Amino acid sequence: GKDGYRHYMEKELHEHPVVIGQTLQRLIDPATRRVVMPDLPFDLAAVQRVVLTACGSAFYAGMIGRYWIEQYARLPVDIDVASEMRYRNPPLTRGGLGLLISQSGETADTLAALRGMREAGQHIVSVLNVEQSTMARESDAVLGTVAGPEISVASTKAFTAQLSVLACLTIALGRARGLIGPAQEESMVTNLLDLPSKATEVFERHDEIRRMATIVADARDVLYLGRGAMFPVALEGALKLKEITYIHAEAYAAGEMKHGPISLIDNTVPVVATVPSGPLFEKTLSNLQEARARGGRLLVFTDMAGAPRLREIAECVVAIPTVDEFVAPILQTIPVQILAYEVALLKGTDVDQPRNLAKSVTVE
Ligand code: M6R
Predict the structure, then answer these.
(1) pTM confidence score
(2) Are 143 and 35 in contact (CB under 8 A)?
(3) What is the pLDDT of residues 315-329, one digit of tens each?
(4) ipTM of the complex
């Protein structure tokens, strides 16, 4: 049941901290602060390329995985949505890593892409929530997300669980390739293990998120922005808003704004940006100043360290705990999903069963 929550989505949002913790527990030895991968039928150190695919929110989790794998394991990652990947027939060298991400393990396009990758000689590793699924049976290895059943059509907790797994896989790849030493591994693992308590603190920002929601609920169009690993967070926020509120939302990499979408901006199009402190902070801030100069109303998600600067220009600022750049996308996803939920409440839509959508897309 809903355990006293109004919707499954609300309940599942509140499960983020627990689900992140449970998922990490499977892949981390807390005593040694090291990642422990299940036995794989191939050598991670021998992998020269990754080809990654998924649909919807799982695809956005994969985009964050690409940033991590490229940055920390220095492995090239080709990524595309599964509906494209399955027909692209990309040239793949045998012995690469084929990485699939799916909550259900039954998504038709992702399954077809998996079969294509297998035929092209890739080692198939799937990040799955339903471990007794078709994709699980057809994979060389399954990395389980321990999110429990996700009932709401809009995915929430499965997403942060997928990121938790991808973060551990990144560490394992970086270590296998000799790029992440014991000290760095310990610090990355510590940052991950701190996430459940930090995620709980995000819910203390509920009132500010609700205030943001009143502005978004009145809009016809909303622009979401982010840079680097926050770009997929923006995509996830825009998808969630579209799915459950039927408000049109677009997400852009903040640096792309001046190549087109900035022409949309006036005081009727709120700009929702995810801008935690870190190496891309100043760059994103200047993109926001450009939007502000055109009358854009800035609604910003950041962390405690980034908040003071953003309060000077933004109408609403939601500041969550400051964490290391590596794990920031996991934490920053949570308030963005809560925003969509709060807007849906104001709109009175059918939150758990949005029109035209199915939980699992098993036909093409
Ligand atoms: O079961 P899967 O993870 O393969 O599903 C993929 C997408 O259909 C799914 O993430 C969809 O985009 C959600 N409704 C997003 O909230």
Answers:
(1) 0.98
(2) no
(3) 999 999 999 999 999
(4) 0.99
- C-alpha span between 270 and 195 (Å, rounded): 30
Atom of ligand 1 nearest to the CA of 55: 6
Q: Fill in the amino acid letter for 313.
A: I
**Which residues on neighbouring strands pair with residue 78, listed in sequence order?**
51
* CA separation for the pair 361, 109 (Å, rounded): 8
Ligand 1: residue whose CA is nearest its atom 14: 154
The pick from 103, 110, 159 for probing ligand 1's pocket by mutation, whose C-beta has the most ligand atoms within 8 angstroms, reads: 103
Helix, coil or strand: residue 341: helix
- For residue 364, what are its two tokens? 């093409």
Instruction: Classify residue 315 by burial, with Cβ atoms within 10 Å: 0-12, 13-18, 19+.
Output: middle
pLDDT digits (tens, 9 = 90+) for 132-179: 999 999 999 999 999 999 999 999 999 999 999 999 999 999 999 999
pLDDT confidence of 363, banded at 50, 70, 90? Answer: confident
The whole-number pLDDT of residue 364 equals 86
Distance from the Cα of residue 281 to its chain's centroid = 19
Contact call for residues 198 and 223 (beta carbons, < 8 A): no
Ligand 1 pocket check for 232: Cβ under 6 Å: no
Which residues are part of the catalytic machinery?
359
Which pair of structure tokens corresponds to residue 168?
A: 């551990």
